[in-house]
TrEMBL record:
Family statement drawn from the similarity comment of this UniProt entry: Belongs to the branched chain amino acid transporter family.
GO MF annotations, alphabetized: L-isoleucine transmembrane transporter activity; L-leucine transmembrane transporter activity; L-valine transmembrane transporter activity
NCBIfam families: livcs
Membrane topology summary: Multi-pass membrane protein
Domain of life according to the entry: Bacteria
Assigned GO CC terms: plasma membrane
Record keywords, A-Z: Amino-acid transport, Cell membrane, Membrane, Transmembrane, Transmembrane helix, Transport
InterPro entries per record: Brnchd-chn_aa_trnsp_Livcs (IPR004685)
One GO biological process term: L-leucine transport
Annotated transmembrane regions: 39-57, 69-93, 109-127, 147-165, 177-198, 218-239, 251-273, 309-330, 342-359, 365-386, 393-414, 434-451
Protein name (Swiss-Prot/TrEMBL): Branched-chain amino acid:cation transporter, LIVCS family
Amino acid sequence: MLTSLVCVNEELESNSQASVILVIESVEVTPVNNERKDIIVAGAALFAMFFGAGNLIFPPALGFLSGTSWFFCMLGFFITGVGLPILGVAALAKSGGSLDRFAGRVSPLFAKVMGTAIVLAIGPFLAIPRTGATVYEIGIKPLFPGVSPLTASIAFFAITLFFALKPSSIVDKIGKYLTPILLLIIGMIIIKGVASPMGHAVGKGLTQPLSRGFIEGYQTMDALASILFAGLILSAITAKGYKTAEEQIKLTCKAGLIAGTGLMLVYGGLLYLGATASGTFEAGISKADLIVSITNTIFGAAGQTAMCLAVSAACLTTSIGLAAVVGSWFEKLTHGKLSYEPVVIVTVIFSALIAVSGVEKIVNFSVPLLIIAYPIVIILIALTLLGRNLSSAVFKGAVTGCLIVSVFDALAFLKISTGAAGKLIAKLPFADSGFAWILPALFCAVVMELISTSMHHKPLNQSTLPKS
């Protein structure tokens, strides 16, 4: 998710201990004089935010799983893995970069709960442990097979803790150059893999490839992260001299197109490589082993070593930045009752324990959480972009309907019986494709709006009516 740029939303920017790893150029307040350059810089920053070493494992695995159906899987993956994060930034820009304005239309409490849930998801529960597990499976295991997962996890998170507790410009400088290096390596692999395919895609019998790609795009977690990224991008654009909301939203959307184009090229190329490998490697190969094997097949041991080192360093900077985000968030949320250092220590220890379980188990663990979270984020982004004239009742109703169905979907994924209610939800339109929440969200939004309108309707005062 984040290779070399981790940011905190505007509520956290005042905390001096937040480690913000930037690839965007230093920003000074200057008059608007080169809009094209500013758009390119912002687009590059957005790309660096969303392009992450941990995300490299998903497109090849999806291509490998889909085989000859790779193109439709790619389209679905693009929607949630590329389009939704960019729309998320645009929606937050429209909300002034504020999470409270974005989710506060439901309720202020909901905004805080949602922000906390997102921070925990991209923090100790999912994203931080995934960086450690990815480093072991892609960066250490292929080069040093004798090293145990526990040893690797302790070493990785000890370094993470050291830099997260003492933010250093060294990490910033390392992060500044990691994205170009990693992107260069991946670009070379994709170009050679497309020019000289390692094999041909084979049929895998995958049903509904479009919806499968859509759901797999959740794993990038970039749409969740975009809610925290928007504040920094908006601040950078404002500091460049663009003061009106119209200018800020326009530049953000154009920057999003640049970032989205880059992400589609990288993700699409990796997904295609996975498809061409569908008849080359064994069906049970893990996501991490697949990208390592593809790299080794295309570029040999030297290319594999370069990939391992670049991914490891990139994951480390991500882990440091995310640990800082978690510490800063809870310090701000509790008004200092939970201080930065203890939160970071607990976060890193917790992440280290989960990381030992491996990438595959972490990914499987994340699915039910993302099944609940992503539809809510999609609904909020859509309603925000539709216009400011929508009432809070519409937001509350849509989120309520979406949440109810998403919880049942998550329980169904876990094979937990949900009785008659679960059977009813399974019969809803689009349920087979994983979108059973759409109609309930719309229905509840309409109902809540009607209730709100009727409650606020003032009946005519009988004394003011004309006498017959």
